[in-house]
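Q: Structure tokens for this one, please.
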Amino acid sequence: MIAKGIAVKIFAEFVAGSNNRKKSLLKSYKFPNKEGKAIVMYYGPAKAAIATFHKEGHNLSYLTEKVTEFEKHSLNPNKSYRHKMLNNAKAIRNYLKHFETLELQLGHSGKFSFLLGDVRINVTPDLHGIDQSGKEIFVKLNFSEKSMKHEYVRTLINCMSYGIQSSLQKNPDSIFFFDVPSGNVFRGVTVTDALVLELLAHSERLQAVWDEL
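A: Here is the predicted structure, written as tokens:
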């Protein structure tokens, strides 16, 4: 059994990746460095601003002010930091463009984990709370404008749907994945025996590659 939990996005990337990508992905996860951690936190400022916007009930001007604040960093002499903050500003603009009407009363983090065979999967929603219809929702956000593979999105949704049902006994229709640049919304799916068997096969493959590292 893998000693540390695997983030659901890492699991989905593993499934969708080539053999070489699978190995490099798990190697960087098994033996993390500062660069890898920086990549994970790249959109941290945008995520924090959006979470605060919902949690504290701000009006839309709060997010537009955050865009302006982040864009001021364009004068920073550090090129990588400058690009990071400009991309975070763009992420918020995209969120406003497609999801400004979303009303959400945030609750606790909503983090949950579950086992797929001998692999523990960790899910940390970017947003978790009650929407305007009174429904509890768990939301993952994608800010990158890079094209996502169909298999990545499919695995992410399938995995979270199974996890929310098996660990929290909640209906998978509470799962959402927002592709912020395009405005596309992917929803949880019905968990079938075939879906579970497929996920278990992927977890066995991940375990095998992990053990080879």
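A few notes: Residues 6-212 form one domain. The chain has a mean pLDDT of 94.
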